[in-house]
Q: What sequence folds into this?
């Protein structure tokens, strides 16, 4: 030890001589990056001292007391797995069990496609990781393709495909005047895109608008996408969370499957199982046959290996424990419905309050829209007023996370919105 | 935007169809078009063609593929010396007691939730990880010149660091040792860096090719990035001595080469956490900058939980803060924020001095068992009079031994003795036990004497 200490003393002396050349930092020219528009809202909220503050920013579910929720089925699953298993590496494709159960949710419990092993699927780092893996895969194997992204969309979608170096275009989606779907323009964009383009679709509960196509509209969208030979990639982050019924929320996907599309799906358990920080999700790609599915899966793994080697085990274990136990699965479905119902209730309450206040504007979009978010139609200036005058935090595009609304704050929220819009 | 009708796969529309389609579009509403369009593209080739039909099956990962082959083998004497995961004397995976304790504590804490972590992960975890690798008294930490972000184990930390470098650093070439962990090259190339190698291992001595290393780093362009294994080099187990580290440091600083340390075995190599961090601390002590990827996979047995951290040591605090903001931009489109479970366990252990001590004891026990396996194997080969110098088995350090066996000999050992290892002759000492050493020694002896 003494020798080592003496040596490091000598080392310190030498630095004065050798040090001159590296006096300045390599990173002086690195610019401070802009704050993330969504996650930055919560940071600001946490810093606010006001007792009235309301966080309707980030899309994480809250109960009627405004508290985060760990589902009972999740607690039970954790009790079962703690202390039992080892923490060995999962295979590169993740937990086989978890993936199997996850595919059933998206493709159907008795899906022929699953039986025929036509689906290439790997565990991914929640929805983000699934999208990114797909984007990298798209870049590698369809290098001349581009992705069409709806306007608006979750902000990180643009970052993901940009970092994967896939050129992106947009397609019409939200219709600001009606606060609904700009269906005709969307269909036009689908038809005008070069054949074989990739289209990013929100399977249900569109983020940030809450505006979903109707079933008939989905059928038409499917039809036109098929006519152009486009690839349909679904981001499904809210299955079960939108209507309260996972089967219903998968309707769009099932329509596309019936119509014969070879789709891709990013699934997330962040919201519907409340596993946010566990980063559990799944990427699947429907292929022509089993052989191709094997090939595609192997290539997805080749992309995962130099990114994180293999995905985290804990969250996957929770999911597979719940979904493979009929009682726990039933409990989960009940708890998901409770969450979805509470949000639907808050939509009704918020709209009701605004109408009671005699607001001159129409607020029916609050109950027409579905899922965690409401695209209020508020302008950035109105949002700023809500924050500065009323300590209400939301993203500047006017997106309200309904999960942050409670019976305790819905009146306050309605009053504030009324104040800035009347 | 005009539609284009030249598509790679489905060139179905005839010119007559196209004209009719165009007419219909002008005349009809959207729903009419949807009905009529069906008739116009009956042969879209839709049901058959996938845009990914051309994708071929990728080769098995060479390291993880070993376990796949091992699992298929029915032999009762089979031995898995492939992947570097610790095994007990009974050949079982090990969850450390202190880890189980931490897990229970987390489970019993009803106030814990599963919310998203910040993009950079758990703040406490990040601070404690920096302390662990740089030392509690590190000047870089005291001066706030370090930014640490939680990542997915060593792989994830390397990848995030490499992506940052590809975007913000003026030199896009990284030099990696020859040989190195099989996954290193792809991590860097996919991040956008180009990869060159520097000499490292000398097969004739089964030790360091130090002259070659100095020459290669000496001729690298100024500012190049250099990957360094902090300790317990994977796959060779050959580490520079402290004097050699000092020479490497001086050379690198004189050429402004940027060190990127991969620290996957802190505490696992010598059994002592501080000792295994010496190389890194030497570089930090001279005031210069470096990147460090830390993994808790082996030293805390948290493999599948994917716990790790990337630290960037900068010359100034404001620079560190700017760097952190840019790291977030790399992370957000990759996985948004890191997984909570494993890092919570680590933070729980590192911040409690009793649990920390427990951990160091369990860690030393793992390292000691491996050192004992090295001795046993060496003795067994000597007892058999196996030709050759096998002293490298006890000179090399860490989980792996680079036996020096060639791929034919490896194949022989797998076929005749059901020993599974990577074809470069690397064996995981962690997969050995006192019971299985004789079998391995027999296999090596046979391979060396019957195959060359």
A:
């Amino acid at each position: 030890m003494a020798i080592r200490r003496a040596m490091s003393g000598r080392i310190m002396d030498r630095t004065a001589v050798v040090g001159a050349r590296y006096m300045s930092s390599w990173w002086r020219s690195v610019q401070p990056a802009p704050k993330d528009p969504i996650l930055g809202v919560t940071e600001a909220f946490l810093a606010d001292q006001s007792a009235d503050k309301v966080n309707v920013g980030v899309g994480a579910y809250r109960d009627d007391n405004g508290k985060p929720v760990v589902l009972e089925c999740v607690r039970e699953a954790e009790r079962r797995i703690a202390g039992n298993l080892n923490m060995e590496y999962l295979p590169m494709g993740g937990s086989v069990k978890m993936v199997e159960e996850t595919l059933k949710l998206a493709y159907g419990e008795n899906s022929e496609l699953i039986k025929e092993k036509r689906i290439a699927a790997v565990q991914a780092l929640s929805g983000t990781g699934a999208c990114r893996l797909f984007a990298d895969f798209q870049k590698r194997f369809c290098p001349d393709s581009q992705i069409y992204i709806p306007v608006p969309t979750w902000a990180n979608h643009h970052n993901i495909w940009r970092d994967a170096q896939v050129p992106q275009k947009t397609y019409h989606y939200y219709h600001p005047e009606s606060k609904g779907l700009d269906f005709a323009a969307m269909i036009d964009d689908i038809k005008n895109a070069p054949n074989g383009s990739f289209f990013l679709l929100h399977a249900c509960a569109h983020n940030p608008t809450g505006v979903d196509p109707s079933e008939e509209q989905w059928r038409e969208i499917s039809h036109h996408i098929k006519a152009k030979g486009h690839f349909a990639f679904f981001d499904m982050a809210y299955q079960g969370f939108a209507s309260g019924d996972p089967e219903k929320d998968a309707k769009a996907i099932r329509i596309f499957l019936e119509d014969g599309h070879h789709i891709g799906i990013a699934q997330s358990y962040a919201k519907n199982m409340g596993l946010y920080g566990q980063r559990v999700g799944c990427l699947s790609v429907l292929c022509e046959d089993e052989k191709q599915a094997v090939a595609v899966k192997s290539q997805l793994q080749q992309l995962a290996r130099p990114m994180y080697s293999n995905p985290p085990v804990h969250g996957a274990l929770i999911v597979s424990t719940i979904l493979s136990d009929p009682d726990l699965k039933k409990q989960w479905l009940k708890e998901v419905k409770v969450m979805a119902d509470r949000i639907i209730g808050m939509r009704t309450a918020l709209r009701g309050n605004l109408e009671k206040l005699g607001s001159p504007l129409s607020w029916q979009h609050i109950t027409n829209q579905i899922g965690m978010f409401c695209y209020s139609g508020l302008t950035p200036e109105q949002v700023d007023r809500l924050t500065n005058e009323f300590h209400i935090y939301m993203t500047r595009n006017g997106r309200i996370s309904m999960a942050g609304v409670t019976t305790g704050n819905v009146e306050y929220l309605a009053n504030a919105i009324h104040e800035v819009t009347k | 935007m005009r539609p284009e009708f030249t598509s790679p796969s489905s060139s179905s529309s005839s010119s007559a169809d196209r004209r009719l389609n165009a007419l219909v579009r002008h005349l009809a509403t959207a729903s009419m078009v949807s009905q009529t369009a069906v008739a116009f593209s009956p042969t879209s080739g839709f049901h058959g063609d996938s845009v990914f039909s051309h994708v071929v099956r990728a080769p098995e990962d060479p390291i993880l593929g070993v376990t796949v082959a091992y699992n298929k083998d029915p032999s009762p004497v089979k031995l898995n010396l492939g992947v570097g995961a610790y095994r007990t004397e009974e050949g079982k995976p090990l969850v450390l007691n202190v880890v189980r304790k931490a897990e229970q504590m987390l489970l019993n804490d009803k106030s814990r939730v599963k919310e998203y972590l910040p993009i950079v992960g758990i703040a406490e975890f990040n601070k404690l990880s920096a302390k662990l690798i740089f030392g509690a008294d590190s000047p870089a930490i005291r001066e706030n010149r370090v930014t640490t972000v939680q990542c997915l184990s060593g792989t994830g930390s390397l990848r995030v660091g490499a992506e940052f470098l590809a975007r913000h650093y003026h030199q896009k070439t990284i030099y990696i040792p020859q040989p190195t962990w099989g996954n290193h090259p792809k991590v860097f190339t996919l991040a956008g860096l180009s990869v060159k190698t520097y000499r490292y291992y000398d097969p004739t001595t089964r030790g360091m090719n130090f002259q070659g290393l100095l020459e290669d780093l000496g001729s690298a362009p100024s500012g190049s990035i250099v990957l360094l294994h902090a300790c317990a080099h994977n796959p060779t187990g050959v580490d520079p001595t402290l004097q050699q580290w000092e020479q490497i440091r001086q050379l690198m600083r004189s050429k402004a080469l940027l060190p990127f340390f991969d620290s996957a075995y802190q505490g696992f190599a010598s059994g002592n956490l501080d000792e295994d961090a010496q190389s890194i601390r030497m570089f930090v002590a001279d005031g210069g900058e470096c990147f460090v990827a830390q993994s808790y996979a082996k030293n805390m047995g948290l493999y599948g939980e994917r716990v790790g951290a990337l630290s960037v040591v900068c010359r100034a605090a404001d620079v560190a803060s700017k760097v952190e903001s840019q790291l977030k931009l790399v992370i957000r489109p990759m996985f948004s924020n890191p997984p909570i479970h494993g890092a919570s366990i680590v933070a729980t252990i590192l911040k409690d001095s009793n649990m920390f001590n427990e951990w160091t004891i369990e860690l030393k026990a793992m390292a000691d068992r491996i050192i004992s396996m090295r001795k046993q194997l060496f003795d067994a080969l000597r007892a058999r009079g196996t030709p050759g110098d096998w002293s490298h088995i006890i000179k090399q350090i860490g989980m792996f031994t680079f036996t020096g066996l060639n791929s034919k000999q490896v194949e022989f050992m797998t076929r005749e003795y059901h020993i599974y290892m990577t074809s470069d002759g690397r064996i995981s000492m962690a997969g050995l036990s006192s019971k299985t050493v004789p079998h391995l020694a027999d296999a090596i002896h046979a391979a060396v004497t019957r195959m060359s």
Chain A touches chain B through 103 residues (CB under 8 Å). The domain at 38-69+338-421 of chain A is CATH 3.90.1150.10 (Aspartate Aminotransferase, domain 1). The CA atoms of residues 201 and 234 of chain A lie 5 Å apart. Chain A has two domains: 38-69+338-421, 90-324.
